[in-house]
Amino acid sequence: MSAPALPRQGLTRTVLRLHRTALIVWGVFVLASVGYLVWLTEVTADSVREAVAACAANTPGLCAFPVRGDYSGPMSWISTFMYYSFWAVAAWAGGALIGRELESGTARLAWTQSCTPTRWLAVKLAVPAGLIVLSGAVFVPVYRWAWSAHRDLMGDDWSFADVFAARGPAVVAYGLCALAVGTLAALLLGRSLPALAVAVTVMIVLNQCVERYREDFWPTAGNGKASADLWQTRSGGYHPPSHFWPLHLVETGIVLTVTALATTAAFRVLRRRTA
């Protein structure tokens, strides 16, 4: 007779225990990013403004841009690291979360002694997915506030790839997609390192394709006089700042559709493996 199935809470605790290091590192990364955004906005910006004023008084026009870099540089790096964190999520999902357990046989042991394969995978995905969504719910509002607070000190406009993604739910969608793609790759390949490589490669290709056609996700406002706030497209048209949300939500929808397809495929592959 097989052992009784673990309650869902017990399986959740098992996932948290097995992957606590990765989850803690992710939590520290998000909280540190949020904390640094607050520090830059509330402390660094004032000192940079003082330096810009002193520069303008002594050597007008010669050092204002480098001085602003003390503020705009870190802001840009934060958005870059958060945006491309989906690479790390894809690698972790394919290599450690799913691939390593399939490769070592611990997943099959769990299926035969404690829980069904479907419930095992559901909890495996639900725990990190919940953390990704929670992280986005904390990071995105803080980043939007920080990015808007001192626009005159910023070097990146709203159409810059990292800023575009970090100012809305697309940054969360990419994380969820990476989780699903990594899981699917691990279930298809059954080995951690190949799954890691394939998952990261697929996410890079997907992201590059989406970025390439991002400007086409919404009709432009036509031709007009260029300005700092307008995004000029390859066709010569322009996107005003008011097009941010339509463009952003279309991209989010595309990435979430890929997420849903990859998740559905992962469960189907799992059922075939365990049939």
Commentary on this structure:
This protein has 275 residues and is mainly alpha-helical. The protein has one domain (8-219, 237-274). 76% of the residues lie in helices and 1% in strands. It contains 11 helices and 2 strands. It has helices at 8-18, 20-58, 64-83, 85-97, 99-104, 106-113, 117-149, 161-166, 170-189, 192-213, 244-274; strands spanning 231-232, 238-239. Strands 1-2 form a two-stranded antiparallel ribbon. A hairpin with a 5-residue loop joins strand 1 and strand 2. Helix 2 packs parallel to helix 7, helix 4 packs parallel to helix 9 and helix 4 (85-97) runs antiparallel to helix 10. The longest helix is centred in the first third of the chain and has 39 residues, at 20-58.
User: Which of globular, elongated, flat, extended, rod-shaped describes the shape?
Assistant: globular
Order of secondary-structure elements: HHHHHHHHHHEEH
Radius of gyration equals 22 Å
Number of helices: 11
Give the amount of beta strand, in percent: under 5%
Rounded to the nearest angstrom, the distance between the terminal CA atoms is: 19 Å
Strand order of the largest sheet: 1-2
Tell me how many strands there are: 2
Share in helix = over 70%
Structural class: mainly alpha
Taking pLDDT < 50 over at least 5 consecutive residues as the criterion, the unreliable ranges are 1-6
Number of domains: 1
Name the features:
globular, disordered N terminus, 2 strands, 275 residues, mainly alpha, two-stranded antiparallel sheet
Q: Could you give a quick summary of the protein structure above?
A:
With 275 residues, the chain is an all-alpha fold. Helices cover 76% and strands 1% of the residues. Strands 1-2 form a two-stranded antiparallel sheet.
